Hints:
It is an enzyme of class 3 (hydrolase). The protein is an alpha+beta fold. It has helices at 12-18, 24-40, 89-109, 158-171, 180-202, 264-267, 273-286, 293-303, 311-326, 331-342, 352-364, 373-401; strands at 7-8, 61-65, 76-80, 121-125, 134-136, 141-143, 212-213, 228-229, 238-239, 243-244.
Amino acid sequence: MTRTRLNCIIPPHLLEELLRSEDSEVQQAALDTLVTTARLRGERAVRASFTGAAAPGDGRRTIFDCQHGRLLASAVMTRSEDGPASADDSVNRAFDGLGSTRDFYREVFNRNSIDDRGMRLDGYAHFGVNFNNAFWDGREMVFGDGDGKMFTDLTGSLTVVAHELAHGVTEHTAGLAYHNQPGALNESISDVFGSLVKQWSLKQSADEADWLIGAEIFTPGIEADALRSMKAPGHAYDNPQFGKDPQPDHMSKFVNLPDTDRGDYGGVHINSGIPNKAFYLTAVGIGGFAWEAPGQIWYESLKASSAETQFQDFADTTYRKAEELYGAGSNEQLAVLEAWQAVGIQISGVPAGVARARSHAGHRNGGVGRKDGLTALTQQIGALSAQVTGLAKDVTALRARK
């Protein structure tokens, strides 16, 4: 049985960079966050029963205020599904973020909350003092306020909320183990659906989206686009505070780290850049809204995966699901094929030469149709041959007239 881990949005390598800061307050906030995270990691927080809390079912939301404490059982309920808005902006942002994510899964994937059985959505704001993280612990969503120097209130980013809740979806579907490649896939799935929730909320196409995760959580003085960029892994930030974004965008750059807490369990927040880039390329290759065909392919592939699914396994599954959903040689399947090739993963059973032929044929056809790429290519060659034969006959006829 896979042990549930604490899934945090801020990767440990960023917090460890802050331990070297010359600002003692930044150092202390990073240290406190790491210590608290280490204490909580791998544990499920205990929820107390609250009088008047929203009843389970249909993803009903309840937000609690930790009042800067670290004991969830002592938190005070501040907003429920049927209650009025709070005077606390953090509470309202958490409430809205949970709602947007819940509605996305219901309307796009016909999924009833995180577990598909109406799991209630409980959020806890103002956790700890200067806590630089937000996490999903298997039962609820918890938000820190940030230290105010490096990070801001983490309720302010919809991609953070949706990313963390997606860990719950993964837990209730594939149950991807949180280490090495399955763990990196786990993180990537959360980035994918985190970005899709934001795109769906804004009604943005794949070309219009920024593909950034946590773009809102850095303070204005920090030069960084976001925690991660799905469009350009390795380029989300490059500054004195955090160094350079270490995410790879190709298997040739895969980062081998120890499967330990300090090693980020084999670099799950780092190597997730590879499948992230594959999804981005798939989405722009198909075009339109990324939560439609690309999202459906990834969601069905997640449900068809298991705890120890590797990158290769998942790539093969997305290719197969694209065929099941949209047809062999379809534009959707060709986009999946090209995307994984671009990050250094060849789909099993599809020779590289055949893949290129399919890809080129698909592009020449404008990505339209459901016929196999090789068939389309053969038809084009046949049409050219017919034209040449026709020209030859014309030349022969002209010569005969002379």
